[in-house]
Amino acid sequence: MKILAFGASTSKSSINQQFAHFAAHQFDGEVNMIDLNDFEMPVFSVDKEKKDGYPVQAHELHDIIENSDFLVISMTEHNGSYTAAFKNTLDWCSRLNNSVFHNKPMLLISTSPGKLGAKFSLEAALSRFPRHTANILGHFSLPSFDENFKDGIINEELAKEFNDLISNVKETLSKLK
């Protein structure tokens, strides 16, 4: 199974990149960790789209998603929503092809240093992504990353909840084969 994973952030020290990496490695398969910095695009506008067409990075990301079997995305939150970089990436990719996620099974997660664990960004993704053909098999928010994560989830209750989710997603994936 080809697993595509990334944190929806451009921070070089992204905790969501770390969390996506951890989550993706709970599954059997070849994990492709990407960095959104490698897909930097101009700020979306219809004028730029008309003048210049679609950035090559949108095509590249589209192809990577299409050629993956399973997606693990960890949502970062800035001021209660997606990061500007991720939103811009989604805007370009959805204009290229509204089927951004190609009905690929997806684990959608989030974390933050705060007690809400980027829940607002996660909730926005849960609402929005299905419109772009996301097949979300499960979701999880990890609060207080620095207190609850050290090479894995250290809070026993949260670890159990996460592990139960992973088991359920694995079971669903096995039925999809």
From TrEMBL:
A Pfam family reported for this protein in Swiss-Prot or TrEMBL: FMN_red
Gene Ontology CC annotation, any one: cytosol
Signal peptide: none
Single GO MF annotation: FMN binding
Residues in NADPH-dependent FMN reductase-like domain copies: 1-138
Listed Gene3D superfamilies: 3.40.50.360
InterPro entries (UniProt xref): Flavoprotein-like_sf, FMN_Rdtase-like_dom, NAD(P)H-dep_reductase
Database matches in PANTHER family: CHROMATE REDUCTASE (PTHR30543), NAD(P)H-DEPENDENT FMN REDUCTASE LOT6 (PTHR30543:SF21)
Stated name of the protein: NAD(P)H-dependent oxidoreductase
